[in-house]
Amino acid sequence: MPFDNFPRSASLKPEPFKAQVTDLELEGLRLLLRVSPIGPETYENRVTDVKDFTSWGITRKWLEEAKETWINNYDWRKTEQRINSFNNYTVEIDHEGFKHKIHFIALLSQKQDAAPLLLSHGWPGSFLEFLGALDEFRTKYSEKDLPFNIIVPSLPGYGYSNGPPLDKDFKVEDASAVLDKLMIGLGFGDGYIAQGGDIGSFISRVLGTTSTACKAVHLNLAIGIFPESDEELKSLKEHEQKGIARTNDFATMGNAYAREHGTRPATIGLVLSSSPIGLLAWIGEKFQQWTHENPSMQEMLDGASLYWFTKSFPRAIYGYRQFFGAVPQFFHNDPQYYCKKPLGYSWHPWELAPIPVPLVAKTGNLVWHREHSEGGHFSAWEKPKLFVKDMEDFAKEVWQSAKGAKI
């Protein structure tokens, strides 16, 4: 297939991978959906507005419609075909004595000066959220002129990557180290750009300060950074103050799911592994609430189906023990992770925490930023054309100088 030209310096030997569940697994999902009841109608699930952090979640009506579609008008095989239209691989990476099987999609260039680009997702996202952007890249460019070597992994514990160790703790810093080994082992040890939103933004922060191979960082989430005084808050522009208000709403009324993940990951992991309807309700709320315009039902069912077929929900939420445990850690507000390397930031008004550019600038060497009038938490998924343009413009600004810097 095109776009499969790994560097000769690669030390890892990726194995081709094909997404394919069995017919028995497909029928098993449909059977569970048919016999799964939906709870009774209540005042809360009738009047709730899922877009509002201060409201009460999803409506029963939406869940009924989603269930009906999932059973009768949804074709996972089409999604598999789309996944398999890209170059998928798995590779084994050793980290502290544990063998991680990491799945990734690669879109590789034949240009000698193409910038290696690591795209990291989060929860409840997956590598699926970057497929639209990858489509944009391979439509716009041939493999001879693609300006990037793009690697889109399933984070450790997510999707087609295996889960963390069962006998010891595993943290965001460990996941970051695994991805750094992935990029270096694929032949990009001389330098790469780390880009991320959600948990991927934390991983990119860590890579920007701990990896010598990571030469620049781009973020579309910087949660945890707040004005230090009323005066600083008042100095912000009107849209920036609205962003802080939205962030506060998320912090007070929008993150109950994250506190559950962080304080009772064992319980919620087992609960949502037992019911596809429960899983869809849990993550479907986020797909709707954190976006500017609702994704299509097809896209939301794609996300839920991937989590269900890979059994990845309980093994994917380990990071929340850091984010919402006894001592919350958000990396973006931690001075040890302030990025001295070139930092870029894309701001979207419907992000769950639209942190203003001036505040992000205090946490690193912010050399590039762009404020959008649309888009939310899943920027590459929601607005792939904007995302591709941001990546192109950020790389043009920083790559030639960053890759030679000894930072």
Any descriptors?
407 residues, alpha/beta, Rossmann fold, nine-stranded mixed beta sheet, 18 helices, Epox_hydrolase-like, Epoxide_hydrolase
Can you walk me through this structure?
With 407 residues, the chain is of the alpha/beta class. It has a single domain, classed as Alpha/Beta hydrolase fold, catalytic domain (Rossmann fold). The protein is built from 18 helices and nine strands. A nine-stranded mixed beta sheet has the order 1-2-3-5-4-6-7-8-9. The model has no long low-confidence stretch (mean pLDDT 96).
CATH topology: Rossmann fold
Unreliable spans are none
The helix tally amounts to 18
Largest sheet: 9 strands, mixed
**CATH architecture assignment name:** 3-Layer(aba) Sandwich
GO biological process, one term: epoxide metabolic process
Active site: 198, 320, 377
Keywords: Hydrolase
GO molecular function, one term: epoxide hydrolase activity
Quick summary:
It comes from Neohortaea acidophila. With about 400 residues, the chain is an alpha/beta fold.
Could you outline the blueprint of secondary structure elements for this entry?
Blueprint: E1 15-16, H1 23-35, H2 43-47, H3 60-72, H4 76-84, E2 87-95, E3 98-107, E4 115-120, H5 131-140, E5 148-153, H6 172-188, E6 192-196, H7 199-210, E7 214-219, H8 230-235, H9 238-254, H10 256-263, H11 265-272, H12 276-289, H13 297-310, H14 313-316, H15 320-323, E8 339-347, H16 357-360, E9 364-371, H17 379-382, H18 384-402
Parallel strand pairs: 4-5, 4-6, 6-7, 7-8, 8-9
Antiparallel strand pairs: 1-2, 2-3, 3-5
Helix pairs in contact: 5-18, 6-7, 10-11, 12-13
GO molecular function, one term: epoxide hydrolase activity
Pfam family, one: EHN
Keywords: Hydrolase
